[in-house]
Each structure stands twice: as C-alpha cells, then as structure tokens.
Hints:
The protein is an alpha/beta fold. It is 42% helix and 17% strand.
Amino acid sequence: MVQPEPWRIDPAIHGAGLGLRRGLMAPLSEHADAVASAVNFMEVAPENWVGLGGRWKRRFAEFSDQYPLVSHGLSLSLGGPEPLDMGFLHDVRHFLRDNDVRCYTEHLSYCSDHGHLYDLMPIPFTEEAVHHAAARIRQVQDFLGQRIGIEHVSYYAAPGQQMSELDFVCAVLEEADCGLLLDVNNAYVNSINHGYDAAQYISGLPGERIMYVHVAGHFDEAADLKVDTHGSAVTDPVWALLSHAYAEFGVLPTLLERDFNFPSVPELLSEVRQIRALQSAGESAAGGAAVR
C-alpha cells in the first residue's frame, strides 16, 4: 500500500486564500497588484480545468505560476453507490502533478447514481456508510499516492440517521486515515438547520487532521433555514466561528469561497483581509505562534 504524506500540507499554503473561478479571472488580473498583496494561495476545482487548452490554459497558467494551488473536487462522489471513476482519477492525478497542486480535497457526499445528480447529496450517518466512504477514500489515496482531505458538507435532510453528524465525520476520518477540510460556514448552516451548537461541533473535530479552512456566505431563507450558496458576503456569526477555530486549533490557512454574484475586487479582497486580520489576532492571542 502507498504510504501517503502526513495531512499537514505544504508550507507554501499559509495565510489567506481565494477560490479561483473563471468569472473572476479578468477582474483579478486587472487588480493584480492588490490581489498579490492580499492573497497567499488559490483553490481550483480540477473538473473546471482538466483537458482545457488554448486561451483558458494560458490564463490558468498565469495564476498557477504566481500562486501556490490547492485543489477542491466536485464530482468524485465518495459516498456514492457506483464504482469510482478511475478515468477521472487518472486525469486528476496528472492535473495535480502537472500544476504542482499542494493538496487535493473532496466532499464527504455523493453526486452520482447511474448519472450525475448535479448536487452534493448527504451520506446517511450510519456505520455501514462509514465503512463504505472510508474504503473509497483509501482507494483514492492509494491511487493518487497521497493523503487527501474531506469536507463535511451542508445538508438539509438526514435519511436513515443512526449517529450524529460529528460522530460520523470523525469515524470516517479515523477509518480512512485522511485529512479534513474544515468549512466553518457549513458548520454554521448545519447548526441552524439541524439545531446544534456550531462551536461545539467544531471543537469536537480532530484538529490535527485539518489541512485548511473554508469560509463563505450563505442565504437566509428563514430564521431556522440557511442555504449554503457561496453567493454572498461572509456573515458575522461565521467570522466568529472562524476565530473560534483558530482559538481551538491554532491559526490555519483559510480560503474565501465565492461562486457567483461576484462583488468588485476591492470588496472581495476586503473579506480576504478580514481573514488575515483574524489570523493576526489569533496569532497574538496564542503568544506569537506561527501562522500556518
């Protein structure tokens, strides 16, 4: 069996990051100096870039040459019933190596069953699902020759639930021996929708497995219903949870996700700088511990 690298990722991934979307490439290029002063790394979905050539490949190279990259997948369907798409994984392996991507993460969910479902569906919180998902994660890690990270997803129903979300996520992490992508917005959204304490949930996660952190905005459908959209600004409760995560685990590399309704670049960078400000505050509170 391939022995993956430890889940602590490359030291080049530190500080504050930004998700690279095609719709942002031109505006970010127009404000290149300001972006470079605020953003330490960028995140890409391999599905959006594998196999592309010509103008898009050249534009992608402009960013990959300047910023360390992490990769966050969308369609591996780790909890799905269908066999893993080994052809796609072959493409991912080449993409990671060709672009010097420092780590690869995916969603702890499924998105295919005799075809693509075009959404991230929740895996039932059961012992059987723990074994199923963990086995598939180990298969991916062995194929890629590296440890991957999984992200706990936002969900709106929990069919067949036999254990808590926290117990389920921790069990998969332990059995798969993989890393964790902590998404504080997902923790907040799920805590409102399912009635638990988000800070307590975050504190219960195995901090030593965290590769990096996501923050994002959501849509307030109602007081007791939040929808994870990545289409609006990060809210104060989510910023507070990010500070809580730093206090709990130390200052971690943290990336801003924004998938649509893109604001101006100065407005976007103000959120990136908010990450950096909270990291500085967390570093000071910890007595000068290094940001990683």
